[in-house]
Structure formats: C-alpha cells, structure tokens
Design brief:
By secondary structure, the protein is an alpha/beta fold. The protein is about 40% helix and about 20% strand. It is built from eleven helices and ten strands. The strands form two sheets. A six-stranded mixed beta sheet has the order 6-7-8-3-9-10, sandwiched between helices. The N terminus is likely disordered. The protein binds adenosine-5'-triphosphate and magnesium ion (MG). Adenosine-5'-triphosphate (ATP) binds next to β2 and α2.
Length: about 280
C-alpha cells in the first residue's frame, strides 16, 4: 500500500451525521503571546485529522477554543455550518462535539459507571434529580442510560471496571474511561488531546485499534492531538502541523513527515515533539 493511500476505514466511516469542521484563520492571543496565529484546518466528515507540533505549539489552545473553553481573538470555527466561536461549552457539546483532556479529568471517587453517566448528562430529559426522587419516568430513563453506558464501556473494553472508583484504575485504563465518557455524549465529532500520552507500547497499540473501531463503528469525525508520529502515521488521513502558533504544514501523514519545515521544527525534540524542559 502506498503511504498516501486512504485508510480502509475511510469509506465505511463516511457518516451522514458527521459534520464538517472548518477552522478559518483562528487567532488566539494571551497577554503578549500569540498562541494561535491565523490557523486554518478542515476536518472532513468521517475522517481522522491529526493536529501535531512541538510543546507549546498551540494544540491544546486550539482544542480549548473549539470546545468553547477559550475565546478566539479573531477567526471562525464552523461545525456543519454553525459558528461556534461565541457559544458556551455546553452549547457546543449539544451540537455533538465531545472532547477529552490532556490531563485526566475524571471524578476519582466516583465509579467508572457514574463518570460515564455524567458524560450523558446533556442527553437526559428528566435529569438525574428525578431519578433520585424515584419518579417512574426518571427511573426508566436512568435504566436506558445505564444500558447505553454498559454498551459503550464494552465497546471501549472497560466493562470489567464499571463498578470501580475511577481514581483506583491504572493510568492506561483511566485514559480509556475518558474516551468512553466522551463517547457517552453520542458525539458527531470527537476531539482527543493526547489519548496515548504516558502509555506503554502495548497500550498505545491497543488504543490505536480502539480509535479505528470508534471511527469505523460509530462513523465519527476525529481530531487528534498526538506527539507519537508512528501513531499519527498509522491513523490519520490528514495532518496539520503547528509550531509556535503557526501552521507550518498540512497534508497526508507521509508527505508531512518529509516536509523540511516539519523536520526542522522537530529537531531538538528527540523526534517526538517534546521539547526538553531546559530549553
Ligand atoms: N490560559 C493561558 N494563558 C496564557 N498562556 C497560555 C494559556 N494557555 C496556553 N498558553 C500558552 O500558549 C502556548 C500554547 O500552549 P498550548 O498548551 O496550546 O500548547 P500545546 O501545543 O498543547 O503544547 P503541549 O504539547 O506541551 O501540550 C504556550 O506558550 C502556553 O504557555
Ligand atoms: Mg497540549
């Protein structure tokens, strides 16, 4: 297979509900620092797009604007034609955009199942309060959501951990719980910020396989921030490379890996984009 051939999942994954995500000349300034400088990228429906770049390049900032946590200084973000830049995070989630965080953000004392139920909160009609009050409609609805939580847990391979407090699970499993929680929102596009960071080789391969299944089985679009170039080359249809807030390259993984500007940006990072602390 040539390095630029489309991934076999691409055709299967084309999903009528997966909207196009268009980021157009997005700029974000913090006091004195331009974290994103007129960055544009498009995530095609049902595709897996990777956003890569050395430490501090602006990848998480980009996610934070897409999900409504940070405000853009200028530029636009459109999901299926809807402008997102002025919307609050819960409105963006309601449009079908879910995300995971670079640092695990689970409720450590709650069971895995309850963490996943929180992920479904926007989908509940009666809210879990009425379930707590033992209203029949609420109880039925809660059961329906618990069933779906179990299905998603099985899909992601964490069903045996449903009753365990999330904080007691090994790190690699917690990363999977985060993925499952984002899927519990029934998203049409999923943003994953370093889903295999801190994992060992076997866990990385297993997570890559899961992401392929998510994409093929659920027909989502995925935007992935990742340092691991092998993982990106294995999974992504398109790659956008940031360096110091600017887009320095974009295209299929094989072409991007050969791009001289990308090679230059990754020099001195040990090839994995992680700049040493001392520089
Ligand atoms: N809330 C903030 N206030 C001020 N500066 C910020 C804020 N968030 C991010 N930055 C700065 O913006 C730049 C981009 O940071 P960002 O976290 O987006 O990088 P990144 O590409 O995700 O890096 P990493 O690979 O280390 O996760 C950095 O210089 C960072 O210090
Ligand atoms: Mg980051």
């Amino acid at each position: 297979m040539s390095a630029t051939a489309p991934h076999p999942e691409a055709a299967e994954a084309a999903h009528p509900d997966a909207p196009e995500l268009v980021v157009d000349r997005l700029t974000v300034r913090f006091a004195g620092l331009t974290a994103l400088d007129e960055v544009s990228l498009t995530v095609a429906p049902g595709s897996l797009h990777a956003l890569i770049g050395p430490n501090g390049a602006g990848k998480s900032t980009c996610f934070n604007v897409l999900s409504g946590v940070y405000r853009a200084t200028s530029g636009s973000v459109r999901l299926g034609g809807t402008e997102l830049t002025s919307l609050a995070p819960h409105r963006i989630a309601a449009l079908g955009m879910a995300r995971t965080f670079q640092n695990i953000a689970l409720s450590g004392r709650l069971s895995t199942a309850d963490n996943l139920m929180l992920g479904r909160h926007r989908l509940t009609r009666t809210g879990f309060v009425s379930a707590g009050l033992r209203l029949p409609g609420g109880r039925r609805e809660e059961r329906r959501h618990r069933d779906r939580v179990r299905e998603i847990a099985e899909f992601v391979g964490i069903e045996e951990h449903l009753a365990t407090p999330a904080g007691l699970l090994p790190y690699g499993v917690q990363k999977r719980v985060e993925l499952a929680r984002a899927l519990c929102l029934e998203p049409r596009i999923l943003l994953l910020d370093e889903p295999v960071a801190g994992m060992n080789g076997a866990e990385r391969l297993a997570m890559a396989a899961t992401l392929r299944q998510v994409r093929a089985g659920l027909g989502l679009s995925l935007l992935l921030v990742e340092h691991d170039m092998d993982m990106v080359a294995r999974l992504a249809d398109e790659v956008t490379v940031l360096d110091f807030g600017r887009r320095i390259a974009s295209g299929p993984p094989a072409a991007v890996q050969r791009d001289p500007e990308v090679i230059r940006a990754y020099l001195g990072t040990g090839g994995n984009g992680e700049r040493s602390e001392s520089t």
